[in-house]
Amino acid sequence: MSDFLKKYSRHRLAMAGLIFLFLEVLLALTIPIFLPLDPIAISRSFNAPPDAEHILGTDGVGRDVLARVIYGGRLSLFIGVASVAITVSIGLPLGLIAGYYRGPAESVIMRAAETFLSIPLMVFVLVVVAIVKATAWNVALIIGGLGWPAVAKLIYASVLAESAKEYVEAARVLGRPNHVVAWLEVLPNAISPLWAQIAFRISQAIMIEASLSFLGAGIQPPAASWGNIMYAAQDLAVLTNRLWIWLPPGICLVLTVMSINLVGEGIRDVLDPKMNNN
Amino acid sequence: MLRFIVRRILQAIPIFIGITAIVFALANLAPGSPADVVAAAGNLPEAAYEELKTALGLDKPLPVRYALWLGRLLHGDLGFSSNAHRQVWDLIGQRIGPSLLLAGTAILLALTVGVALGVMAAYRPYSRWDNISSALSFIGVSTPNFFLSLLLIYIFAVRLGLLPAQGMYYTGHKSLSGLLLHLLMPASVLGLQMVGNFVKQTRNSMLTALNEEYIKTARAKGLGEAAVVLRHALRNAWIPVVATLGMTVPTLVGGAVVTEQIFGWPGIGSLMVHSINTRDYNTIMGITVLVSLGVLAVNIVLDAVYSLLDPRIKV
Amino acid sequence: MDILAVREIKKYFFAGTGLWGRPARAIKAVDGVSLTVRRGQTAGLVGESGCGKSTLGRTILRLFAPTAGRVLLGGEDITDYPPARLRPLRRKMQMIFQDPLAALNPRLTALAAVETPLRSYGQGKEERRRLAREMLRVVGLNASCEGKYPHEMSGGQRQRVVVARAMVLEPQFVVCDEPVSALDVSVRAQVLNLLRDMGERLGLSYLFISHDLSVVYYFCDWVYVMYLGKIVEEAAREEIFAHPAHPYTEALLSAVLLPDPGQKRVRIILQGDLPDPLNPPAGCRFYSRCPYAVPRCEEEPPLRELRPGHRAACWLH
Lengths: 278, 315, 317
What we know:
Oligomer: heterotrimer
CATH architecture of chain C: 3-Layer(aba) Sandwich
CATH class of chain C: Alpha Beta
CATH superfamily of chain C: P-loop containing nucleotide triphosphate hydrolases
Largest interface: A-B, 44 and 56 residues
Largest sheet of chain B: none
CATH superfamily of chain B: MetI-like
Distance between the termini of chain C: 30 Å
Structural class of chain C: alpha/beta
Order of helices and strands of chain B: HHHHHHHHHHHH
Shape of chain C: globular
CATH topology of chain B: MetI-like fold
Helix content of chain C: 25-40%
Order of helices and strands of chain C: EEEHEEHEHHHHEHEHEEHHEE
Helix content of chain B: over 70%
CATH class of chain B: Mainly Alpha
């Protein structure tokens, strides 16, 4: 573990990403404690440029943009983490079962994964969101629930390679039950590619939610999301003259996604030196 | 070879069934579906209720309904658009050309730039070109394409006035130059998100190829570097790049939905967004099933092409 | 009483699939082998790599399901036992692997590797730990090794952990699959001595798989010679080394130096490689490489008794 941290800290960009994320989480959680920010309250001035009262101005109905960006950040981080937790808790067992037990389970799971991968994730999510109500939990559930094949395939390939090793055979000779061999002997040795993948899945989930909300199909106002704040920029007047509305959430989004991806690449470089320099 | 393609098609059958079953299930869950209508009509008198069910085909068991739906699908009957009051199939048919044009241009752009950068990165690893290409790949996967689109429109259309921001042609006259100008921004946005994948593949397979014996032989024979790299190494190295093309298609489709919407491109993607915002479920399901089957078909074709190109592949 | 009896066991692997998912070809890795291991004795199984001896060892331990034939452990027919019924029996039959680095879980320390198998057999945590420590001492590893991971140990130390891990279960029968061939020559003798000591201590019976006849001579009471999935000769150690009957055994013996300087042998060099196991030659499988081949060898020779306890499959005898 300390070995991992030492190697990781040598990657300057990955460290920068980690520090940025740490600060972002800290700010998203603490700023509302110190500043009286309300993402829903409507002030008297709308479409107002930044001033002392509204540091990032107000949007088309008079809500404080800074407050919305901060609460939108909370939402993005929630969607990212929650959806990946769901993806992993579906994809990991399925990948392990397919890769370790093989047989009919393998063909069923891998065919199902191919089926899900044929439906473009963005389209799939859009369709389901059009049917159910797009609350934060639902969006996380949908993105997470539909994202399992990528994780399942990753774990499957890794478990398949690991299961062929002799210590797995040895564990069976030693009388360890099959599921114990799968979860306690094979999985811990096969799981390392997952850590970087988790980072990439988080950033992907954040991007999908933002795109969804930008299209008006995701999180609905007055709840704040980076995507639905930028929805306003589909209006040429906002895009041209009110940069304070769409630029800050966009920049936050890009920096967040970049930081998470940098962390992911840092993890991958440390855990798997052969795979580096993409 | 032929056996491989036949087997690949046979393998695709369960996936075809899976995709259609998922879309069928979604269509039945959607508000306004026959099932939904019946559920809402729960307080009707018994006889009228049964009559309604029979009229909507709900008296038949689920597998039969799926089979009937599939039969209609295979005959090109995707239902009626509640929004446009036209057959969904006609609606999509009208939009498919612009979408293919945009996607094709994006792939072409990404392949050209990606392969070129990948070759240079592999030829001199850790050089400036290598760094540029990895930075570009990183930006490509880390920038949501709707935000990139907004930035490009703001800079090139609003501020500089160089490029048109909306649509496919200038209003009033259809010209090729107008089309190309309209294509430039959305195709670049879509291409950028794929470029990283092509750079990575090209770089990896070029690195392998450049270490092969036949490259050393070619050099020893005194062939020029350009000939060695392009004619000998790249000829073998580009084949795996074709194979990864299939993996990028779903991402491309997802990106196209957002990008077409922002640039007002009259394709399937913007139709999808419009249908979702107006809750036009027949159109939504029609697009979903067609796009997914398209992805499946592209992958089969690419696998077949791959097996033709690389005689070692025998799955 | 035999601890192990194997009757006409077969293990086929199916390579490739046809268009409709049916297997295209069968590799007959083990093709009708019978052997016995007597209680407290060591049987050697000798052959070139690829002859099916490792597959046979794994099929006996039911790591592979046999295609045909029976496996009897201590008189009990375990051939058709489902995994759940087999598991309690695993205690009685253990295995020492060829490459200890591959056979040890990279994430387990020496102590943990020896302790974990006991978990499946219901001792308490303290008891497990005590037994594992004790066994590590017995195989000659001191306390400083307990916390080491496989990659931190030497080859000999690793193989001692593998031995300890098997022996801690107090088995009755152990398959040793080339237990020293991956080790440095300098530690081979130590590991062989350890195995012999453990055998005496626990009253073990071994099936000792090796391609190295000098090791077999040192270790085994009874020897089976395997060629392309079949036993071609079997006899007691002294008998087979003194009077090899099958030309293949003769060729193997001619290639080794044995502690018997009085005996002069002519080196017999085999022509060619092992035939393709997908298409073994018809008739005697050794026909294609045999220096004494006669037309009759196109017919398959049965395994016949030449002298009491000495059997060979060759038309010459």
